[in-house]
Amino acid sequence: LNPEGMDRLSQQPPFWLWLGRNRPRLLWLLLALTLIGTWAYRTRTSHRAEMIKDVVVALRDTGSLETAEAAGNEVMAMLPDDVDWQYTMARLLVMRGKYREALARLPDLPQRSPYDQLEKEIIRAYCMLYLGDLDQALAIVAGFPEETRREDGRVAIILAEMAQRAGDLDRMAEYLPVASRWKPNAGRIRRFYPQLQRERRWDTIAASDLEAPFTDATEAFSACEAFMTLSLTPQLTRIIEQGETLWPADPRLLEPLFYMIL
Contact 153/181 with Cβ under 8 angstroms? Predict the structure, then answer.
Protein backbone atom coordinates (compact mmCIF):
# COMPACT_ATOMS: atom_id res chain seq x y z
CA LEU A 1 0.00 0.00 0.00
CA ASN A 2 1.07 3.55 -0.60
CA PRO A 3 1.56 5.94 2.34
CA GLU A 4 -1.83 7.58 1.76
CA GLY A 5 -3.59 4.20 2.03
CA MET A 6 -1.68 3.37 5.21
CA ASP A 7 -2.91 6.64 6.77
CA ARG A 8 -6.53 5.75 6.00
CA LEU A 9 -6.15 2.31 7.60
CA SER A 10 -4.73 3.83 10.75
CA GLN A 11 -7.77 6.13 11.25
CA GLN A 12 -10.75 5.20 13.51
CA PRO A 13 -14.04 4.09 11.90
CA PRO A 14 -16.37 6.99 10.95
CA PHE A 15 -18.82 6.23 13.81
CA TRP A 16 -16.15 6.53 16.48
CA LEU A 17 -14.82 9.67 14.88
CA TRP A 18 -18.32 11.18 14.96
CA LEU A 19 -18.77 10.03 18.56
CA GLY A 20 -15.54 11.64 19.62
CA ARG A 21 -16.39 14.95 17.97
CA ASN A 22 -19.92 15.04 19.49
CA ARG A 23 -19.19 13.58 22.91
CA PRO A 24 -20.01 16.77 24.92
CA ARG A 25 -23.34 17.17 23.14
CA LEU A 26 -24.21 13.53 23.72
CA LEU A 27 -23.45 13.82 27.45
CA TRP A 28 -25.78 16.82 27.73
CA LEU A 29 -28.46 14.94 25.78
CA LEU A 30 -28.14 11.92 28.07
CA LEU A 31 -28.40 14.16 31.14
CA ALA A 32 -31.50 15.88 29.71
CA LEU A 33 -33.18 12.56 28.94
CA THR A 34 -32.44 11.34 32.48
CA LEU A 35 -33.96 14.47 34.00
CA ILE A 36 -37.01 14.26 31.75
CA GLY A 37 -37.50 10.60 32.69
CA THR A 38 -37.22 11.39 36.39
CA TRP A 39 -39.67 14.30 36.06
CA ALA A 40 -42.13 12.15 34.10
CA TYR A 41 -41.99 9.39 36.74
CA ARG A 42 -42.52 11.82 39.59
CA THR A 43 -45.32 13.55 37.74
CA ARG A 44 -47.01 10.23 37.09
CA THR A 45 -46.73 9.29 40.77
CA SER A 46 -48.04 12.66 41.88
CA HIS A 47 -50.93 12.51 39.42
CA ARG A 48 -51.90 9.03 40.59
CA ALA A 49 -51.73 10.14 44.21
CA GLU A 50 -54.02 13.10 43.52
CA MET A 51 -56.53 10.79 41.85
CA ILE A 52 -56.48 8.46 44.87
CA LYS A 53 -56.99 11.45 47.16
CA ASP A 54 -60.29 12.20 45.41
CA VAL A 55 -61.35 8.58 45.93
CA VAL A 56 -60.41 8.73 49.62
CA VAL A 57 -62.52 11.85 50.18
CA ALA A 58 -65.49 10.28 48.39
CA LEU A 59 -65.17 7.08 50.45
CA ARG A 60 -64.87 9.09 53.66
CA ASP A 61 -67.92 11.19 52.90
CA THR A 62 -70.03 8.10 52.13
CA GLY A 63 -69.03 6.33 55.33
CA SER A 64 -66.61 3.76 53.86
CA LEU A 65 -63.98 4.69 56.41
CA GLU A 66 -61.95 1.47 56.48
CA THR A 67 -61.47 1.50 52.71
CA ALA A 68 -60.75 5.24 52.82
CA GLU A 69 -58.00 4.70 55.37
CA ALA A 70 -56.37 1.94 53.32
CA ALA A 71 -56.39 4.10 50.18
CA GLY A 72 -55.21 7.12 52.15
CA ASN A 73 -52.20 5.17 53.40
CA GLU A 74 -51.26 4.49 49.77
CA VAL A 75 -51.14 8.24 49.20
CA MET A 76 -48.98 8.64 52.32
CA ALA A 77 -46.50 6.12 50.87
CA MET A 78 -46.39 7.96 47.54
CA LEU A 79 -46.27 11.49 49.00
CA PRO A 80 -44.58 11.16 52.42
CA ASP A 81 -43.89 14.92 52.59
CA ASP A 82 -47.47 16.03 51.89
CA VAL A 83 -48.24 17.78 55.17
CA ASP A 84 -51.87 18.56 54.33
CA TRP A 85 -52.48 14.88 53.68
CA GLN A 86 -50.85 13.95 56.99
CA TYR A 87 -53.45 16.10 58.73
CA THR A 88 -56.21 14.58 56.61
CA MET A 89 -55.18 11.08 57.68
CA ALA A 90 -55.01 12.11 61.34
CA ARG A 91 -58.61 13.35 61.09
CA LEU A 92 -59.60 10.12 59.35
CA LEU A 93 -58.17 8.13 62.26
CA VAL A 94 -60.45 10.10 64.57
CA MET A 95 -63.43 9.32 62.37
CA ARG A 96 -62.51 5.64 62.51
CA GLY A 97 -62.39 5.74 66.30
CA LYS A 98 -58.62 5.23 66.44
CA TYR A 99 -58.16 7.98 68.99
CA ARG A 100 -54.94 6.79 70.59
CA GLU A 101 -53.30 6.30 67.20
CA ALA A 102 -54.37 9.79 66.17
CA LEU A 103 -52.92 11.26 69.37
CA ALA A 104 -49.66 9.40 68.77
CA ARG A 105 -49.31 11.06 65.35
CA LEU A 106 -49.82 14.62 66.54
CA PRO A 107 -46.23 15.30 67.73
CA ASP A 108 -44.89 14.32 64.29
CA LEU A 109 -47.23 16.59 62.34
CA PRO A 110 -45.32 19.64 61.03
CA GLN A 111 -46.61 22.94 62.33
CA ARG A 112 -46.30 25.49 59.55
CA SER A 113 -48.65 28.16 60.88
CA PRO A 114 -51.04 29.01 63.73
CA TYR A 115 -53.74 27.26 61.69
CA ASP A 116 -51.81 23.98 61.97
CA GLN A 117 -51.57 24.45 65.74
CA LEU A 118 -55.33 24.98 65.91
CA GLU A 119 -55.87 21.88 63.77
CA LYS A 120 -53.74 19.82 66.15
CA GLU A 121 -55.65 21.06 69.16
CA ILE A 122 -59.01 20.30 67.52
CA ILE A 123 -57.87 16.73 66.83
CA ARG A 124 -56.60 16.46 70.41
CA ALA A 125 -59.93 17.70 71.77
CA TYR A 126 -61.82 15.13 69.69
CA CYS A 127 -59.62 12.36 71.03
CA MET A 128 -59.90 13.45 74.64
CA LEU A 129 -63.68 13.66 74.39
CA TYR A 130 -64.13 10.21 72.88
CA LEU A 131 -61.57 8.64 75.21
CA GLY A 132 -63.72 9.86 78.08
CA ASP A 133 -61.55 12.70 79.37
CA LEU A 134 -64.27 15.37 79.21
CA ASP A 135 -62.41 17.83 81.48
CA GLN A 136 -59.35 17.80 79.24
CA ALA A 137 -61.50 18.23 76.14
CA LEU A 138 -63.28 21.18 77.75
CA ALA A 139 -59.97 22.78 78.70
CA ILE A 140 -58.68 22.50 75.13
CA VAL A 141 -61.86 23.93 73.60
CA ALA A 142 -61.90 26.77 76.13
CA GLY A 143 -58.55 27.89 74.73
CA PHE A 144 -59.89 28.34 71.21
CA PRO A 145 -60.68 31.84 69.92
CA GLU A 146 -64.32 32.83 70.35
CA GLU A 147 -64.85 33.02 66.61
CA THR A 148 -63.57 29.47 66.19
CA ARG A 149 -65.91 28.14 68.88
CA ARG A 150 -68.83 29.98 67.31
CA GLU A 151 -68.27 29.28 63.60
CA ASP A 152 -65.89 26.34 63.03
CA GLY A 153 -67.77 23.14 62.19
CA ARG A 154 -64.98 20.94 63.52
CA VAL A 155 -65.26 22.54 66.95
CA ALA A 156 -69.06 22.77 66.88
CA ILE A 157 -69.47 18.99 66.72
CA ILE A 158 -67.33 18.66 69.85
CA LEU A 159 -69.44 21.28 71.63
CA ALA A 160 -72.64 19.57 70.47
CA GLU A 161 -71.52 16.26 71.93
CA MET A 162 -70.49 17.94 75.17
CA ALA A 163 -73.93 19.58 75.36
CA GLN A 164 -75.60 16.23 74.74
CA ARG A 165 -73.67 14.63 77.58
CA ALA A 166 -74.63 17.53 79.83
CA GLY A 167 -78.31 17.13 78.86
CA ASP A 168 -78.41 20.64 77.36
CA LEU A 169 -80.68 20.08 74.37
CA ASP A 170 -80.88 23.75 73.40
CA ARG A 171 -77.12 24.18 73.13
CA MET A 172 -76.85 20.88 71.31
CA ALA A 173 -79.42 22.07 68.78
CA GLU A 174 -77.55 25.36 68.44
CA TYR A 175 -74.22 23.75 67.56
CA LEU A 176 -75.38 21.05 65.14
CA PRO A 177 -76.17 23.36 62.18
CA VAL A 178 -72.74 24.93 62.62
CA ALA A 179 -71.19 21.45 62.72
CA SER A 180 -72.70 20.75 59.30
CA ARG A 181 -70.37 23.35 57.77
CA TRP A 182 -67.71 20.62 57.77
CA LYS A 183 -68.92 17.80 55.54
CA PRO A 184 -66.99 14.95 57.24
CA ASN A 185 -69.16 15.58 60.32
CA ALA A 186 -72.20 14.07 58.56
CA GLY A 187 -71.99 10.72 60.29
CA ARG A 188 -71.54 12.18 63.76
CA ILE A 189 -74.32 14.73 63.26
CA ARG A 190 -76.81 12.06 62.24
CA ARG A 191 -76.21 10.12 65.43
CA PHE A 192 -78.18 12.91 67.11
CA TYR A 193 -81.22 12.44 64.86
CA PRO A 194 -83.10 9.76 66.84
CA GLN A 195 -82.91 11.98 69.93
CA LEU A 196 -83.90 15.05 67.94
CA GLN A 197 -86.83 13.08 66.53
CA ARG A 198 -88.01 12.16 70.01
CA GLU A 199 -87.74 15.79 71.03
CA ARG A 200 -89.46 16.90 67.81
CA ARG A 201 -86.59 19.19 66.88
CA TRP A 202 -87.42 19.07 63.18
CA ASP A 203 -85.77 22.40 62.33
CA THR A 204 -82.45 21.25 63.78
CA ILE A 205 -82.48 18.07 61.69
CA ALA A 206 -83.29 20.02 58.55
CA ALA A 207 -80.68 22.70 59.23
CA SER A 208 -77.90 20.24 59.99
CA ASP A 209 -78.44 17.54 57.37
CA LEU A 210 -75.95 17.13 54.56
CA GLU A 211 -76.46 15.52 51.17
CA ALA A 212 -74.10 12.63 51.90
CA PRO A 213 -75.81 9.21 51.77
CA PHE A 214 -77.13 7.77 55.01
CA THR A 215 -75.49 4.65 56.40
CA ASP A 216 -78.00 3.94 59.19
CA ALA A 217 -81.71 3.28 58.62
CA THR A 218 -82.88 4.66 61.99
CA GLU A 219 -81.09 7.93 61.39
CA ALA A 220 -82.44 8.12 57.85
CA PHE A 221 -86.06 7.59 58.88
CA SER A 222 -85.67 10.11 61.72
CA ALA A 223 -84.70 12.63 59.05
CA CYS A 224 -87.64 11.48 56.91
CA GLU A 225 -90.11 12.43 59.62
CA ALA A 226 -88.53 15.87 59.94
CA PHE A 227 -88.73 16.45 56.19
CA MET A 228 -92.34 15.27 56.04
CA THR A 229 -93.29 17.55 58.93
CA LEU A 230 -91.59 20.52 57.29
CA SER A 231 -92.83 19.61 53.77
CA LEU A 232 -89.29 19.41 52.42
CA THR A 233 -90.06 17.19 49.45
CA PRO A 234 -86.66 17.22 47.65
CA GLN A 235 -84.81 16.12 50.81
CA LEU A 236 -87.44 13.48 51.52
CA THR A 237 -87.24 12.14 47.96
CA ARG A 238 -83.49 11.75 48.26
CA ILE A 239 -83.80 9.55 51.35
CA ILE A 240 -86.68 7.50 49.93
CA GLU A 241 -84.65 6.70 46.83
CA GLN A 242 -81.77 5.58 48.98
CA GLY A 243 -84.06 3.61 51.28
CA GLU A 244 -85.59 1.70 48.38
CA THR A 245 -82.09 0.50 47.52
CA LEU A 246 -80.64 -0.14 50.97
CA TRP A 247 -83.63 -0.99 53.16
CA PRO A 248 -86.45 -2.06 50.82
CA ALA A 249 -88.02 -4.39 53.41
CA ASP A 250 -87.99 -1.89 56.27
CA PRO A 251 -91.62 -1.07 57.19
CA ARG A 252 -90.60 2.46 58.15
CA LEU A 253 -90.20 3.15 54.45
CA LEU A 254 -93.95 2.87 53.92
CA GLU A 255 -94.91 6.10 55.66
CA PRO A 256 -92.77 8.42 53.51
CA LEU A 257 -93.87 6.50 50.40
CA PHE A 258 -97.54 7.06 51.28
CA TYR A 259 -96.74 10.70 52.04
CA MET A 260 -95.33 11.15 48.54
CA ILE A 261 -98.34 9.45 46.94
CA LEU A 262 -100.84 11.64 48.81
Answer: yes
